[in-house]
Structures are given as structure tokens and as C-alpha cells.
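@channel sequence for tomorrow's demo:
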Amino acid sequence: MELSTDKGYPDLLQQISDTYTQGRIQAVQAVNTHITQTYWQVGRQIVEFEQGGKARAEYGKGFSRSNLIRSRQFYLAWPISATASHPLSWSVIVELLKIDDPLERSFYVQQTLRERWSVRELIRQKNSALFLRLAASKDKAGVLQLAAQGQLIEQPADLLREPYVFEFLKIPEPYLVSETQLETLLCNHLQQFLLELGKGFTFVGRQYRVTLNNTHYKVDLVFYHRILRCFVLIDLKITDVQHHDIGQMNMYLGYFAAEENTEGDNPPIGIILSRNKDELLVEYATYQMNSQLFVQKYQLYLPEREELRRELELTLREAGASDEGAT
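C-alpha cells (generated this afternoon):
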């Protein structure tokens, strides 16, 4: 067959390719939906069988014991229908079912759907205690909203996590890195870094030059946030943040607002990431300063989950006591 020289031929090839790709995607989605529905139905049948008071020794014949257990958990976790979980693969659902706390599981369901996490990404976020890190700084209402909706990005403060966790760099403890080395490692692991930063970040550049009166300054990392429609500037510190670091970031924000923003851009956001921070110094150094400037902690290793969980439980317990006192 002779190759066509018609000008529409490349368009035809592209249409065929797009149709084939879309068809494969739809086929995978259909298979996933069928598998999900099947396991949910199996779970429903097991639970109804048990509720009928019948012996439990026979229903497992020919099936993986672990899948039967997960199917039963699946039905109990989503007893109305499996519709909400259809976009999730069975392997993702299995990871979600490993979470005992309903609030925490609900958050990871919403966040997985919102950010389209793979199984690997979900596992990483679970291990890094993302829900606990976000929830520990909220009140009861904020925790409940977080669990029900996931992390909504509607204002600059919604971007923040405390602490940021860079365990994916695999820096051996107690090895010390310089700021330049840390910056290089983060750029070398950009996909994981973007996952830790959260949804909406696109990378612009590193060591971004800012020139004022023939003096050159450099912002460590520059991103653009497509949801908030603004630049996000990040400076890395391996020591405690000093007042002049905050002043410098404020200068960067002024420069980007005046020189880099284009029509439709919102005011830039500045985040100084430090291993440690003096809360009082930060409070005084940012007094009446740009509300888009934040100083946040990061750590190179996984956080203490139990400590974060205790903080969350304390918040919920205190809120419960306040509710009782008000009645």
C-alpha cells in the first residue's frame, strides 16, 4: 500500500492513534469497574451469610483467603454501594482498607481521587503520615472537613505542610548536606518532590536570577501553581532561619509581583524551608509583613506517626470536651 501524500493524512493518523489510546483506557476502566464490583458483591455475600448465623468454614473454597478478607472489609467500608470507589483500582482499594481509622481512610480516598495517585504514591503518602501532618494543625471542624473532602487548595495557606518530608532522598542519617546539595537532590528527584509539595505545582527553575541595581540574587527554587495562578518561591535553609532570610524572601516577592507577574497572575507566595525555626523570631520578623510569606520546617526522615496521632487525638478530645461544656 502506497503512503498517502494527502495533507489530511497526518491528521488521520493522529485521530486513529487517539481513538486507539482512548479505547484502551476505556477498556482498562471497564475491567477495573467490573473487578471492583465483583469484590464488593463477594464481600456483601460473605457478610449476609455471616449475619444469617451460618457456618463460616465453607465459603472460602477456591478463593484467596486474603482477597476474601479484603472483600468483606470492602463491603463493610462501603456498605451502600461500590460506586464511589469505581475510579480506584483494586490494588489501591486494598491499600486504603489497611487504614483502620475511618477519618484517615476517608482523607486518603478523597486525596487519591483528587490527585490520581498510583498505588506507589498512595503508599508513600501513607508512610509519610500526610493526613496526620495536615490534621495536626487544624481544629476539629478543619479535621472533619479534611477527612471528608481531602486537601482543598483555595488560598496560599492551603499549600502548607508541617513538616515537609524528604525521606525519598534517602540521605543516610546523620549525614549532613549543604544547601546546594539539598537543592540538587530535590531537583534530581523532582517527581517525588512535586508529590510532596502537593497538587498544582509546575517547576519553573532553580537558582532563578533576580537583579536589582546590578546586584544579582538567586531564588533557590521557583514554581508556578496552576490552581492559585501564582509563582511559588522556595528558599532552602539547613540552619535556623534568620531575620535577614525573611527580609530577603520578602524582597523576592516584591520583585516577582512587579517584574515577573503577567496579566491574570495572583501575588506570589514565598516559602522558606528550614530544618528548625524559632517561632518567636519568625513572628516578630514577619510582623505586618507580606501575608504570602511562610516559614515551614522540613525533615529528611519519616515523621513520628504516634506523636502526630496523639496531637490529633488531643485536638478532637479537647473539641469534644468544649462541645459538652457548651451544652
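heads up for whoever presents: Strands lie at 164-165, 201-212, 215-225, 230-237, 269-274, 293-299.
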